[in-house]
UniProtKB/TrEMBL annotation:
Belongs to the class-I pyridine nucleotide-disulfide oxidoreductase family. Disulfide bonds join 43-48. FAD binds at residues 52, 115, 145-147, 308. GO terms for biological process: 2-oxoglutarate metabolic process. Binds 1 FAD per subunit. This is Oxidoreductase.
Length: 472
């Protein structure tokens, strides 16, 4: 057998690519991961893990300060150097030895270098020393190359050497002041983190915050950021950016200007497909890759795509879910085993359409799954939403003095099942999986009345939501 031939080639060894390869190997195939940077990808080194490591210490501190008796013990301030050092331990100082070791231990080959499709079922890898290696796939190639920060075409922005999410998550020193352009998840989380470090933060959003979630989520996070000392400018366009000496000036559409030591651009993502040889197989470089629900690229029987590069849901857990479907279906198709590709089957990523869970790790946290009232209505469902103030729940009042939070469930009035749930409040992230199970399982409302939340926990908000809805 040709040493450069594998059943499956995975282009990109982020969390998603790793999982595709792992599932395929567990299904009896041979697989190789091609990686030009760090095995583990964005999530491990410049996204989920370092950002959450930057956020968690201040969250723990604020939590202690919300409990009489405990708050008296908190006499100091955040130790920023210790926070950064703890962050470094999560990124293993940007060293991927342990992940490479995991891959090889799992029976997955790893080839370092930049991979490009050069023909059907063929990837050519350019190694760091400039040499080339041609890999051939007997069954499939999966593109899992992820996404890059999107830098909008704002006058002077690129020349101002802006921070992207990579700089914000890997900074070794914190700036005195930071302007953040954007109003999404990265902007809200990084504004929260840097404000907690004592950086003077100004967030400039062209709309409200966290668009796409329930409107009360963005409103509550805006209010909380302001309480944490962040200057939040809503409905404000960024028209020009200039770097002069040690500072950056951001000019806004209303004639104002914000001057800061650094500017973080957090305005979404663009697919990493410009230089992966898409043209060699008849696709357009720079495009997102559209797939069916088995993650196979439309028009191909051997080309798959998973994770950010598909634009289905730019989240690690959702990409890994796609990866499990893709790795399993590639193995099933290769071995001639039955394929289960109907909705909610073994080999499809159906939840991407109806039940994507997401947590925004601001303080308060925002945890949501499935539809908002708006998106459910737009999708044609006949719906009713009920809200409840989480602070009224006994468990929440014990958890934190003056607990402030809101929960909403969106009910499909025809089927009497949940289409979506949103929680906003301190530490609501751990409530989310119950909601995800209810939405994915399409658990009827009358059965949910039998899922009794333990007293006194914050989960009792479930009972209050059901009572507010009324027993069918
Ligand atoms: C600041 C920030 C915080 C985030 N926090 C969260 C969070 O808390 N929870 C969550 O679920 N999601 C979070 N996300 C989103 C999450 O990081 C992404 O959804 C996830 O990393 C996507 O994984 P992926 O494997 O598709 O892509 P990536 O992780 O980007 O992996 C792609 C890999 O492919 C490699 N590659 C690309 N092109 C080539 C090539 N031609 N040859 C060889 N290798 C190549 C890259 O080097 C990379 O290692 C966050 C994102 C950001 C920016
Ligand atoms: N906790 C998490 O799960 C987490 C954390 C961070 C990021 N992520 C993922 O990473 C992805 C990227 O996050 P993000 O915050 O960069 O994107 P986003 O799509 O969440 O937000 C982009 C923001 O930039 C604004 N914007 C876009 N173009 C602009 C322009 N030309 N001028 C001014 N503003 C502009 C948008 O209005 C929006 O507010 C998200 O899809 C998210 O799912 C997840």
């Amino acid at each position: 057998m040709d040493a450069n031939e594998y059943d499956l080639i995975v282009l990109g060894a982020g969390a998603v690519g790793e999982n595709v390869a792992d599932r395929a190997v567990q299904g009896g195939l041979t697989a190789v991961l091609v990686e030009h940077e760090l095995v583990g990808g964005e999530c491990s080194y410049w996204a989920c893990m370092p950002s959450k490591a930057l956020l968690r210490p201040a969250q723990a501190l604020r939590a202690a300060r919300q409990v009489d008796g405990a708050k008296e013990a908190v006499t100091g301030t955040l130790d920023v150097a210790a926070v950064l050092a703890r962050r470094d331990s999560f990124t293993h100082n940007w060293n991927d030895d342990s992940q490479v070791q995991w891959a090889r231990g799992a029976g997955i080959a790893v080839v370092r270098g930049h991979g490009r499709l050069t023909a059907h079922r063929e990837v050519t890898v350019t190694a760091p020393d400039g040499s080339h290696q041609v890999l051939r796939a007997r069954h499939a190639v999966t593109v899992a190359t992820g996404s890059d920060p999107f830098i909008p075409d704002i006058e002077g922005l690129r020349d101002a050497d802006p921070w992207t999410s990579r700089d914000a998550t890997s900074a070794k020193v914190t700036p005195e002041s930071l302007a953040v352009v954007g109003g999404g998840v990265v902007a809200a989380e990084m504004a929260t983190a840097y404000a907690s470090f004592g950086t003077e933060v100004t967030l400039i959003s062209r709309g409200g915050l966290l668009a796409g979630l329930e409107p009360f989520a963005g409103e509550m996070v805006t209010e909380a950021l302001r309480e944490q000392g962040v200057r939040v400018l809503l409905d404000t366009r960024t028209v020009r950016v200039r770097r002069t000496g040690g500072s950056v000036t951001v000019e806004t559409g209303d004639g104002g200007a914000v001057t800061a030591a650094e500017v973080l651009v957090a305005t979404g993502r663009t697919p990493r497909t410009r230089d992966i040889g898409l043209d060699a197989v008849g696709l357009t470089p720079g495009d997102w890759l559209e797939t069916d629900d088995t993650m196979r690229v439309e028009g191909f029987d051997w080309l798959y795509a998973t994770g950010d590069v598909t634009r289905r849901a730019l989240l690690t857990h959702q990409g890994k879910y796609q990866a499990r479907a893709a790795g399993d279906v590639i193995a099933a198709r290769a071995k001639g085993r039955p394929v289960s590709d109907g909705p909610w089957g073994t080999h499809v990523a159906t939840a991407d359409h109806e039940a994507v869970p997401q947590v925004t790790f601001t303080d308060p946290e925002v945890a949501s799954v499935g539809h908002t009232l708006r998106s459910a209505t737009d999708a044609g469902y006949r719906v009713r939403a009920v809200d409840y103030e989480i602070g009224y729940v006994a468990g929440a009042s014990v958890y934190a003095d003056g607990y402030k939070g809101t929960a909403r469930m969106v009910v499909d009035e025809d089927r009497k099942v949940l289409l979506g749930v949103t929680f906003v409040g301190p530490d609501v992230s751990e409530l989310l999986q119950a909601a995800t199970i209810a939405v994915v399982g399409q658990v009827p409302i009358d059965r949910l009345w039998h899922a009794v939340p333990a007293y006194p926990t914050i989960n009792e908000v479930w009972l209050r939501l059901l009572e507010a809805y009324g027993r069918p």
